[in-house]
C-alpha cells in the first residue's frame, strides 16, 4: 500500500506519518517513509533516525536533474530519472536512514537562498513513488509538502490512498474542500484524519466538513505528542487511534 499524507502547514502531517509508520512496523510490516517536503526538517527526529542524505544526489544532484528537465521542455514525459523499478530492498543504502523497522528516504531539500525552484524534487518524488514495486506486506508512507502543489506535480496520483490531516482551523476546513475535488479528479480514495482535537472541537469540525463520512480517525491533543514535536523526540509509543486507523485502511 502507498499512502500519501497531505494537509495545511502545521496540521500534523509528519506526526501522523511517524505514528502510522511505527504502528505498521509494530505489526511486522516492512515500512518506508518518503519525505517529499523540501522544507521539512523534523520528520527524521520523530522517527528516531538521523537525517538521510538527499536522494536527489544519487541522481547527480538538483542541478543535473534540473538540466535534464530544461533540455526536455516542453515534453517532460521524456524525462526518466528512474529507469528500472525498485523494491524496498533495492534502495541505495547510503540514502536510507532506519530505526526499529522503519526506513526513511528524503527526496531533497532546499539548502541555500536563491538556489531556484523545487521542480526537480517534485519530478523525482513522483517517479520514485510511482516506480516502487511493493510486496504484499510492504507499506510506503509519503509525507507531502503543505498545501496542494504536490497535486499539481502529480505525486498523489501514484498513491493508493490519500490521508488528509485537518487541525481545528478555518483554513483546514476550506482546504479539505479543494483537496476533495482534486482527489476525485484523479480517482484516488481520500480520507480525513482530525488532529489536535477534543470532543467539543471534533464535533464542531464535523459540522464544518461537507462530507464527514470521510473522517476515519481522530487524534486528540496530547501533551506527549506536543512535547515530542517541540523537543525533536521520537514518537515511539503506540496510540489506540492509530491502531484503529490501520484496521480501517487494511479493510477498505
From TrEMBL:
<dbReference type="GO" id="GO:0051782">
    <property type="term" value="P:negative regulation of cell division"/>
</dbReference>
<protein>
    <submittedName>
        <fullName>Cellulose synthase operon protein YhjQ</fullName>
    </submittedName>
</protein>
<dbReference type="InterPro" id="IPR050625">
    <property type="entry name" value="ParA/MinD_ATPase"/>
</dbReference>
<dbReference type="Pfam" id="PF01656">
    <property type="entry name" value="CbiA"/>
</dbReference>
<feature type="domain" description="CobQ/CobB/MinD/ParA nucleotide binding">
    <location>
        <begin position="5"/>
        <end position="231"/>
    </location>
</feature>
<dbReference type="GO" id="GO:0009898">
    <property type="term" value="C:cytoplasmic side of plasma membrane"/>
</dbReference>
<dbReference type="GO" id="GO:0016887">
    <property type="term" value="F:ATP hydrolysis activity"/>
</dbReference>
<dbReference type="GO" id="GO:0005829">
    <property type="term" value="C:cytosol"/>
</dbReference>
<dbReference type="InterPro" id="IPR027417">
    <property type="entry name" value="P-loop_NTPase"/>
</dbReference>
<dbReference type="InterPro" id="IPR014433">
    <property type="entry name" value="CooC"/>
</dbReference>
<dbReference type="GO" id="GO:0005524">
    <property type="term" value="F:ATP binding"/>
</dbReference>
<dbReference type="InterPro" id="IPR002586">
    <property type="entry name" value="CobQ/CobB/MinD/ParA_Nub-bd_dom"/>
</dbReference>
Amino acid at each position: 500500500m502507498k499512502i500519501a499524507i497531505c494537509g495545511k502547514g502545521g496540521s500534523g502531517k509528519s506526526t501522523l506519518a511517524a505514528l502510522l509508520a511505527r504502528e505498521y512496523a509494530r505489526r511486522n510490516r516492512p515500512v518506508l517513509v518518503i519525505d517529499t517536503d523540501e522544507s521539512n526538517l523534523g520528520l527524521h527526529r520523530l522517527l528516531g533516525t538521523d537525517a538521510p542524505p538527499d536522494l536527489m544526489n544519487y541522481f547527480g544532484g538538483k542541478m543535473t536533474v534540473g538540466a535534464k528537465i530544461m533540455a526536455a521542455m516542453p515534453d517532460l514525459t521524456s524525462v526518466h530519472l528512474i529507469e528500472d523499478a525498485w523494491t524496498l530492498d533495492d534502495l541505495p543504502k547510503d540514502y536510507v536512514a532506519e530505526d526499529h523497522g522503519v526506513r526513511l528516504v528524503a527526496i531533497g531539500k532546499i539548502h541555500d537562498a536563491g538556489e531556484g525552484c523545487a521542480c526537480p524534487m517534485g519530478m523525482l518524488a513522483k517517479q520514485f513513488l510511482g516506480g516502487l514495486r511493493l510486496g504484499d506486506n510492504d507499506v510506503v508512507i509519503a509525507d507531502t509538502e503543505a498545501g496542494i502543489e504536490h497535486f499539481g506535480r502529480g505525486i498523489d496520483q501514484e498513491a493508493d490512498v490519500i490521508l488528509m490531516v485537518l487541525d481545528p482551523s478555518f483554513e483546514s476546513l476550506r482546504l479539505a474542500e479543494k483537496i476533495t475535488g482534486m482527489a476525485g479528479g484523479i480517482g484516488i480514495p481520500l480520507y480525513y484524519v482530525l488532529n489536535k482535537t477534543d470532543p467539543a472541537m471534533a464535533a464542531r469540525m464535523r459540522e464544518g466538513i461537507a462530507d464527514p463520512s470521510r473522517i476515519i480517525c481522530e487524534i486528540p491533543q496530547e501533551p506527549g505528542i506536543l512535547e515530542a514535536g517541540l523537543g525533536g523526540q521520537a514518537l515511539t509509543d503506540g496510540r489506540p487511534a492509530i491502531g484503529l486507523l490501520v484496521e480501517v485502511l487494511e479493510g477498505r
